[in-house]
Amino acid sequence: MIRKTALLIIDAQVGIIEGQLGPVFQPSTLVQTLKKVREDAYSKGIPVLYVQDADVGEVGSDDFAIHPEIAPLPSETVIQKLATDSFHGTDLHEKLQALGINHLVITGCKTEYCIDSACRKATTLGYDVTLVKDGHSTSDNQVLSAEQIIAHHNTCLHGLGNIEPFILVRESTEDIFAPTHDSYR
Question: Is the domain defined by 5-177 classed in CATH 3.90.550.10?
Answer without folding.
Answer: no
